[in-house]
């Protein structure tokens, strides 16, 4: 959503608790490590989901290392993250081994966290050690951007905390540069927000109050992390009605000066949580706020269509199917009307979220047709780099949504992958 923004503040070492979203969790973490919840394993991947993820990784790996090493690793990481989200850690690890740069260390740290949550202590310790070697290598490289090392260290601190090794977690966290906390980066925010799982129920009110007290003085990156933490607390303590309402008020009213994309993304996650908890009334109430926020903001068409698509998808999941279909049709009309004013490298990413909305609404044929159109829009650019990025994003998103491609679409996706090559 946002490019990582490097802070201009002078660098200084930051303890774990200097990061605002971590600060509010310090005492809770120390008291509740042994009681950290275990994440239950989900169902096995469907064969088509694994095929989509493998296709995505193959497309990402088609990038030549020189001069596209960064683009290659970034695209490969999209597939790795998709595997973790679909509870396929061994496939994520298989892909991680194929990443050439620091992002492999980040993936190893994520795998260590997964193992720690699933009672795989020895594996977790092994991959903490492997990820730590990347931290050391990055520390020796004077040309590296420090946030890369710091992201891995924060993930390692999280893994060690889950393993009950508070001393080592503190040691990793103590090496994080304060400047890294100011970047608007979703992976950073998601990692920091994971500490919400350590907050004791009796500390929840204190945690929210601590955020309130420091929120206005935070940088935008720190606010993004704080918002992600609130969203995680909302999900974890959903049964605590009073605190849940307090968190919802922060995002619907109190923090109304946040940039609309950050606030809207958080609101949509609250809606998703309400739907997962079978609270349709709350979902529709929050969705109305999100819809008003989206309507009041002036978006580029390339941003507007995906946002409308996500709103329509949630509206359909909340039971307003007819209205959701009308919203999806309106979004598609905007795409066709504005298509020529959308840069060709952005057309596929503008369109595929809408295709997946139609899939959620039960219109598999429409979804398949729009995904096929998104692929062809990507092919308009003669360079393989945007084609590869679009194919990776589309394939991983389809796997996440459980969207099985038709034989025709699957064949075309393989053809696009096999055709990647010069010029890049």
Task: Outline the structure in words.
Helix 6 packs antiparallel against helix 7 and helix 14 runs parallel beside helix 16 (301-317). 71% of the residues lie in helices and 1% in strands. The chain has helices at 20-23, 26-32, 47-61, 65-85, 89-96, 102-117, 121-140, 146-162, 166-174, 186-193, 204-215, 220-236, 241-254, 260-276, 280-296, 301-317, 321-338, 344-360, 364-379, 384-401, 407-418, and strands at 13-14, 176-177. Mean pLDDT is 90; it is low at 1-40. It is mainly alpha-helical. The chain folds into three domains: 15-42 and 87-190, no CATH class; 199-295; 298-424, Alpha Horseshoe (Serine Threonine Protein Phosphatase 5, Tetratricopeptide repeat). The protein contains 21 helices and two strands. The longest helix is centred in the N-terminal third of the chain and has 21 residues, at 65-85. A two-stranded antiparallel ribbon has the order 1-2.
Secondary-structure class:
mainly alpha
Write down the Rg: 21 Å
Biggest sheet strand line-up: 1-2
Question: In one word, what is the shape?
Answer: globular
- The count of β-strands is 2
Total DSSP helices: 21
What's the helical proportion of residues? over 70%
Major sheet size, sense and barrel closure: 2 strands, antiparallel
What is the N-to-C order of secondary-structure elements (H for helix, E for strand)?
EHHHHHHHHHEHHHHHHHHHHHH
In whole angstroms, the N-to-C terminal distance is 24 Å
Averaging pLDDT over every residue, what do you get? 90
Estimate nothing, just give the exact number of structural domains. 3
Q: Which stretches of 5+ consecutive residues score pLDDT under 50?
A: 1-40
β content, as a range? under 5%
């Amino acid at each position: 959503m946002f490019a990582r923004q490097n802070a201009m503040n002078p660098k200084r070492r930051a303890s774990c608790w200097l990061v605002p979203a971590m600060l509010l969790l310090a005492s809770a973490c120390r008291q509740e490590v042994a009681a950290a919840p275990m994440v239950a394993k989900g169902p096995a991947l469907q064969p088509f989901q694994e095929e989509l993820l493998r296709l995505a990784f193959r497309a990402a790996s088609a990038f030549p290392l020189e001069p596209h090493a960064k683009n290659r690793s970034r695209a490969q990481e999209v597939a790795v993250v998709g595997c973790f989200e679909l509870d396929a850690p061994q496939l994520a690890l298989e892909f991680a081994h194929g990443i050439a740069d620091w992002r492999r260390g980040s993936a190893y740290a994520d795998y260590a966290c997964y193992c720690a949550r699933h009672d795989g202590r020895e594996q977790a310790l092994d991959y903490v050690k492997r990820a730590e070697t990347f931290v050391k290598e990055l520390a020796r490289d004077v040309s590296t951007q420090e946030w890369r090392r710091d992201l891995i260290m924060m993930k390692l601190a999280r893994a060690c905390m889950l393993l009950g090794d508070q001393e080592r977690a503190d040691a990793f966290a103590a090496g994080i540069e304060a400047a890294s906390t100011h970047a608007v980066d979703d992976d950073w925010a998601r990692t920091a927000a994971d500490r919400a799982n350590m907050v004791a129920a009796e500390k929840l009110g204190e945690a929210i109050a601590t955020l309130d007290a420091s929120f206005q003085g935070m940088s935008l990156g720190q606010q993004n992390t704080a918002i992600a933490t609130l969203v995680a607390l909302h999900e974890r303590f959903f049964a605590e009605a009073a605190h849940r309402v307090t968190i919802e008020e922060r995002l619907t009213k109190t923090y109304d000066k946040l940039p609309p994309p950050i606030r809207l993304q958080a609101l949509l996650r609250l809606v998703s949580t309400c739907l997962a908890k079978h609270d349709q009334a709350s979902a529709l109430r929050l969705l109305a706020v999100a819809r008003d926020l989206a309507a009041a903001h002036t978006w580029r068409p390339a941003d507007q269509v995906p946002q409308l698509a996500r709103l329509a998808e949630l509206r359909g999941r909340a039971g307003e199917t007819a209205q959701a279909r009308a919203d999806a049709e309106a979004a598609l009309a905007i795409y066709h009307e504005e298509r020529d004013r959308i840069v060709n490298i952005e057309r596929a990413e503008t369109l595929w979220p809408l295709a997946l909305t139609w899939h959620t609404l039960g219109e598999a044929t429409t979804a398949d047709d729009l995904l096929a159109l998104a692929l062809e829009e990507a092919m308009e650019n003669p360079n393989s780099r945007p084609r590869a990025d679009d194919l990776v994003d589309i394939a991983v998103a389809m796997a996440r949504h459980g969207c099985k491609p038709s034989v025709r679409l699957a064949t075309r996706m393989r053809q696009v992958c096999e055709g990647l090559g010069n010029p890049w």
